């Protein structure tokens, strides 16, 4: 039986941010929160936010000189409002001298679970706010509603919401040796980093079918014992990464597709452990990714 609670909750477990979705229908919510003295703002430029040694840097509304878009992220534990401000230039927000701008990919794994959830939500929503200004049906500029969580087309009347595209990511273990896993080097990384196999679910396809198809296409391996392990928001551009473990039916079938994946290799547990500790030249996924958690979880099972 699979575990009732996924074994790999991901680096951003979630649940700390009170999204307070029922408040979004208040047309005056953003104006009211911008006027409230205890409101805190997370400023996003691209996929980066200001951080310091203490974590995410939240600023008062008055420190945001110009924002392309505003949105309501939710409520902090003390009830204060949390706003997102999407800026085109870093200088549009006054941040403390000790802060620096850092992208989600680089810092997501180093933040607390609470802060990582807030940042992941903010980057995902900011991307949609930037990229979806026009109605995809008729091309008319849309109007923001629900405190930044929906768009209304004044011409055709359609309502649009932030998209989340399901994608799978799979760690494949050996049919012959429980101490081996199969990883692939992606062409986009120059073949220098090995990771799990991943891809988007297609229309009309179940997640299990996606797992089988993606691994078959990228690594040539047929699978058995497919097991869901956990999920993670991954706003590049707007994905929900659903993590799986699976077992190869025949190890010898493994081969790279030569296009997206330039090399596949079986790694034993000792090699993976050394790479996780930074003792070898082998590069694995960064700590902010669910791929890292899938690999680390597998490694620790028998250590």
TrEMBL record:
All residue ranges annotated as the Nudix hydrolase domain in the record: 162-289
Ranges of Pro residues composition bias in the record: 1-12
Annotated InterPro entries: NAD-cap_RNA_hydrolase_NudC, NADH_PPase-like_N, NudC-like_C, NUDIX_hydrolase-like_dom_sf, NUDIX_hydrolase_CS, NUDIX_hydrolase_dom, Znr_NADH_PPase
Pfam family, one: NUDIX
Catalytic reaction(s) noted: a 5'-end NAD(+)-phospho-ribonucleoside in mRNA + H2O = a 5'-end phospho-adenosine-phospho-ribonucleoside in mRNA + beta-nicotinamide D-ribonucleotide + 2 H(+)
Region annotation (Disordered) ranges: 1-27
Family statement: Belongs to the Nudix hydrolase family. NudC subfamily.
Official protein name in the record: NAD(+) diphosphatase
């Amino acid at each position: 039986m699979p575990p009732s609670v996924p074994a790999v909750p991901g680096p951003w477990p979630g649940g700390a941010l009170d999204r307070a979705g029922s408040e979004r229908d208040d047309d005056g919510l953003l104006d009211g929160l911008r006027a409230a003295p205890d409101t805190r703002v997370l400023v996003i430029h691209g996929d980066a936010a200001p951080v310091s040694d203490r974590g995410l840097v939240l600023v008062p509304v008055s420190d945001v000189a110009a924002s392309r878009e505003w949105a309501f992220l939710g409520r902090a534990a003390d009830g204060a409002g949390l706003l997102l401000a999407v800026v085109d230039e870093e200088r549009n927000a006054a941040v403390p001298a000790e802060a620096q701008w850092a992208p989600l990919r680089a810092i997501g794994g180093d933040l607390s679970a609470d802060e990582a959830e807030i940042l992941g939500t903010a980057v995902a929503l900011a991307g949609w706010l930037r990229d979806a200004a026009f109605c995809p049906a008729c091309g008319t500029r849309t109007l923001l509603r629900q405190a930044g969580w929906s768009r209304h087309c004044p011409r055709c009347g359609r309502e649009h919401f932030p998209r989340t595209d399901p994608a799978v990511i799979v760690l494949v273990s050996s049919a012959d040796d429980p101490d081996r896993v199969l990883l692939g080097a992606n062409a986009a990384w120059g073949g220098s980093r090995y990771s799990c196999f991943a891809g988007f679910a297609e229309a009309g396809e179940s997640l299990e079918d996606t797992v089988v198809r993606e691994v078959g296409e990228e690594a040539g391996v047929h699978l058995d014992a497919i097991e869901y392990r956990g999920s993670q928001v991954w706003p590049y551009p707007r994905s929900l990464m659903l993590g799986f473990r699976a077992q190869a039916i025949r190890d010898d079938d493994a081969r790279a597709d030569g296009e997206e994946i330039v090399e596949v290799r079986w790694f034993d547990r000792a090699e993976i452990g050394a790479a996780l500790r930074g003792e070898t030249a082998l590069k694995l996924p960064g700590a902010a990714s669910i791929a890292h958690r899938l690999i680390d979880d597998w490694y620790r099972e028998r250590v």
